[in-house]
């Protein structure tokens, strides 16, 4: 099974033109099952140079790219795996097949990686689907065994005399029935131990992190006893952070045998207690007169948690992101507890952590002034609709060191700029509308409804089509209003939601002519006076709702106020017809 790639587009290859020959300057990505990768624009002696169109076609036949999110969704449907689209980001969310957590697995539509934010398993889509198939097969087997066991138990309960006396007596027969009342508890353990099944991937405890953590103490316990620690806190500005905030973030300190002070910033990968082992730490050391930092684990490609992530609660929907721990502490302390994270790799964009931020509806990016370009890149990766960019020339720690706690709160409340201003949209915002326009284009072309009373109009206007304006002109007494009444009545009786606006004729007269046309008899004659109520009852039972504008309420209104009448019918999705009669 080959999952996770499709034919490549040439847009990811850098091309150079030399004397009319298009040459590729990059190596091929991969090879598919039936095609080996080769330079899409290579030429040999005696061959004619190929055009860009030919190069693109060759590339599409010989290269592979990750599946798009829609293609991933199709693969999940084939494997009967339930999923949902994530509101922000190119992800699909499903249940984890490793730790069985609900809605915790994020599948990227960019690179087809699969990351669980609970057990932190990182795998490929191909491996995930293979694992899901194994889990499903064992689940089916377990269900079958349970059904057979239940059927056997019910049979013995109904026919105890059929139990083999060589095997059962009254005592062990009761035990047999009791044991089979509940599913086999040990079956799940046997599933996990299957040779093709991977163990639930918890963060391994790094020995260096464990050693540093065990040999450190709460920073508040060391600050009063060690001069070097006081000096280090003063240099970093952490002495202006409250002891409560330092304890909440579980900041620790240690002093080595040479009395050299160090500060430990813990990183967590889940919501946990403050006394739990972190999955990573950043160490700030004072070596002579120089400050140095170290990060453990030191593998740049390995995700080792966030600073401040353990403070997340299920109610949090807003977060402030900074590039360093000191700014995160300053924001949290000045705002009285606004959730703040420090990004594990600073200003550099790390795609591994995007699933951990998918739950937040509003994200503030407060980066140093010289890193604003990186902040914008982060914002676009996280979805610019929910991101706010803080462009203050001062960092949070600088404001707090100068007593500007109030300034920090004011900047977050009023100084955060939108990455995308109002009035602008992205392709993702109108994705559903574009799809609907393409899928239902034939319906719109042929019309949502056909007239029954005016058959020639169907050939001329193709039926009622949305967003079309039909203008009728003619002199007084030519029958424009009469025609419009029956025109709308034709569609109204078919279930088309109708709004009739007349700025000349009162609404009573409009409805009168509609009722006469609906009945097909001259109700205005005295001979039909007794049947008017009956026809009104029948008219009111028509399935298409009719709304008529009160002429007297709109005669003195401006054009913009009149245009707002559309909101009275905009909340519904069914087809609608607006009839407007101008004097």
UniProtKB/TrEMBL annotation:
Q: Name one GO biological process term.
A: mitochondrial DNA replication
Q: One Gene Ontology cellular component annotation?
A: mitochondrion
For this protein, the record's PROSITE patterns field holds:
SF4_HELICASE
Single GO MF descriptor: ATP binding
Query: Which positions fall inside the SF4 helicase domain?
Result: 443-583
Q: Which domain of life does the UniProt lineage start with? A: Eukaryota
Q: Which PANTHER family match?
A: T7-LIKE MITOCHONDRIAL DNA HELICASE (PTHR12873), TWINKLE MTDNA HELICASE (PTHR12873:SF0)
- The identity of this protein, by name, is SF4 helicase domain-containing protein
Species the sequence originates in: Cylicostephanus goldi (Nematode worm)
């Amino acid at each position: 099974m080959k999952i996770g790639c499709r034919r490549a587009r040439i847009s990811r290859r850098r091309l150079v033109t030399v004397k009319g020959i298009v040459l590729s300057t990059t190596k091929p990505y991969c090879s598919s099952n039936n095609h080996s990768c080769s330079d899409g624009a290579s030429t040999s002696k005696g061959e004619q140079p190929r055009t860009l169109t030919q190069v693109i076609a060759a590339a599409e036949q010989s290269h592979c790219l990750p599946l798009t999110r829609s293609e991933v969704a199709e693969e999940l449907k084939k494997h009967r795996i339930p999923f949902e689209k994530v509101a922000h980001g190119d992800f699909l969310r499903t249940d984890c097949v490793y730790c069985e957590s609900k809605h915790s697995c994020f599948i990227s539509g960019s690179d087809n990686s699969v990351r669980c934010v609970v057990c932190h398993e990182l795998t490929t889509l191909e491996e995930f689907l293979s694992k899901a198939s194994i889990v499903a097969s064992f689940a089916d087997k377990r269900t079958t065994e349970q059904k057979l066991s239940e059927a056997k138990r019910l049979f013995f309960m109904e026919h105890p005399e059929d139990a083999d006396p060589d095997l059962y007596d009254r005592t062990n027969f009761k035990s047999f029935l009791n044991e089979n009342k509940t599913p086999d508890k040990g079956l799940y353990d046997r599933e996990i131990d299957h040779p093709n099944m991977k163990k639930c991937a918890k963060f391994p405890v790094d020995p260096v992190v464990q050693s540093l953590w065990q040999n450190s103490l709460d920073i508040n316990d060391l600050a009063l006893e060690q001069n070097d620690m006081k000096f280090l806190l003063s240099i970093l500005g952490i002495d202006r952070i409250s002891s409560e905030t330092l304890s909440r973030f579980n900041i620790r300190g240690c002093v080595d045998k040479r009395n050299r002070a160090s500060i430990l910033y813990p990183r967590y990968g889940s919501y946990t207690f403050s006394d739990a082992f972190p999955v990573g730490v950043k160490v700030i050391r004072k070596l002579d007169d120089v400050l140095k930092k170290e990060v453990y684990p030191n593998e740049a490609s390995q995700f080792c948690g966030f600073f401040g992530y353990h403070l997340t609660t299920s109610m949090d929907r807003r977060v402030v992101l900074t590039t360093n721990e000191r700014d995160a502490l300053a924001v949290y302390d000045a705002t009285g507890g606004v959730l703040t994270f420090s990004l594990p790799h600073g200003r550099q964009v790390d795609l591994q952590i995007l699933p951990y931020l998918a739950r937040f509806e509003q994200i503030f990016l407060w980066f140093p002034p010289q890193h604003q370009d990186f902040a914008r890149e982060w914002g676009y990766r996280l979805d610019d609709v929910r991101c706010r960019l803080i462009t203050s020339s001062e960092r949070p720690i600088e404001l707090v060191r100068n007593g500007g706690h109030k300034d920090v709160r004011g900047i977050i409340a009023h100084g955060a700029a939108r990455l995308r201003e109002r009035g602008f949209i992205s392709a993702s915002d109108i994705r559903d509308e574009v799809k609907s326009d393409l899928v239902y284009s034939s319906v719109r072309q042929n019309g949502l409804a056909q007239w029954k009373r005016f058959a020639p109009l169907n050939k001329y206007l193709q039926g009622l089509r949305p967003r079309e304006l039909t203008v009728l002109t003619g002199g007084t007494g030519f029958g424009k209003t009469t025609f419009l009444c029956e025109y709308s009545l034709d569609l109204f009786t078919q279930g088309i939601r109708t709004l009739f606006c007349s700025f000349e004729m009162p609404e009573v007269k409009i409805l009168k002519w509609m009722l006469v046309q609906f009945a097909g008899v001259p109700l205005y004659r005295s001979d039909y006076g007794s049947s008017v109520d009956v026809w009104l009852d029948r008219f009111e039972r028509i399935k298409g709702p009719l709304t008529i504008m009160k002429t007297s309420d709109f005669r003195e209104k401006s054009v913009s106020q009149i245009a707002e009448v559309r909101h009275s019918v905009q909340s519904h999705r069914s087809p609608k017809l607006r009839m407007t009669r101008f004097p």
